[in-house]
Amino acid sequence: MDTAGRSVSATSGDASVPDFEDASVPDSQGVSAHESGEASPDQDAASVTDPRAFAALIADASDEQLEQGVRANRDLMLGEIFKRMPEHVDAEAARTVSAVIEWEIGGPPEGTTDHFRVAIERGACTVSKGPAPEADVRYRLGAVDFLKLVAGVTTGPKLFLVGRLRIRGDLVMAARIPGLLRPAGTPRRTA
Q1: Alpha-carbon span 137 to 113, nearest angstrom
Q2: One domain for residues 59 and 94
Q3: Domain that residue 78 falls in
Q4: 105 found inside a domain
Q5: How far is CA 65 from the centre of its chain?
Q6: 18 and 81 share a domain?
Q7: Are residues 68 and 119 in the same domain?
């Protein structure tokens, strides 16, 4: 739903893009995951898109379809992904970690760049929109590659080896991050 209460939806080519409710990430305060991983009662169905369905949608779409979807819904898609990122942190694996990660997501559209700050502190995760000057690790990649990465369609090492992911900062910490963040569609680890 948009701020006027209307449903927000888009289609790009033959690939549907999921409906997302208010997918904005706050500029100044972080967003924390609910421990239960369940949506609050005031969220409508559009904002609780199943991560497995999202991952399947990304896996089945061509790069051209993903690019069209990003052009039409970039802010909504990136906002929803980062809003949900705390839900995908493996709290047990991250219990001894203290790190700030900056994601720099490039186009499409060309010339567009979004920055997101992800802080992991002793198993908890907060996210905010904007650069992270204090980042321990900086990842830079295009939006289509980012979608594939968070959906588990590709891996960071593969993108890095083919020059589509640039990493700056603490490379040891950068190598640990994939073990801390589960791709969409992968089950939550149980005790």
Answers
A1: 17
A2: no
A3: 10-27+44-87
A4: yes
A5: 18
A6: yes
A7: no
Angle at 141 between CA 137 and CA 143, to 5 degrees: 130
Query: Is the domain of 49 the same as that of 112?
Result: no
Residue type, 138: R
Residue 126 lies in a domain: yes
Q: What angle do CA 93, 129, 65 make, to 5 degrees?
A: 85
pLDDT digits (tens, 9 = 90+) for 13-43: 333 333 333 333 444 344 433 333 443 333 3
> Closest by alpha carbon to 1, among 41, 47, 65?
47
CA–CA distance, 13 with 62 (Å, rounded to integer): 10
pLDDT digits (tens, 9 = 90+) for 61-110: 999 999 999 999 999 999 999 999 999 999 999 999 999 999 999 999 99
What are the DSSP calls for 104-155, one per residue? EEEPSSTT--EEEEEEEETTEEEEEES--TT-SEEEEEEHHHHHHHHTTSS-
Q: Are strands 98-106 and 165-169 parallel, antiparallel or unpaired?
A: unpaired
For the chain, what is the domain count? 2
The answer as to whether 80 is a domain residue is yes
Asked whether residue 139 falls in the same domain as residue 57, the answer is: no
Half-sphere CA count of 85, side-chain side, radius 13 A:
32
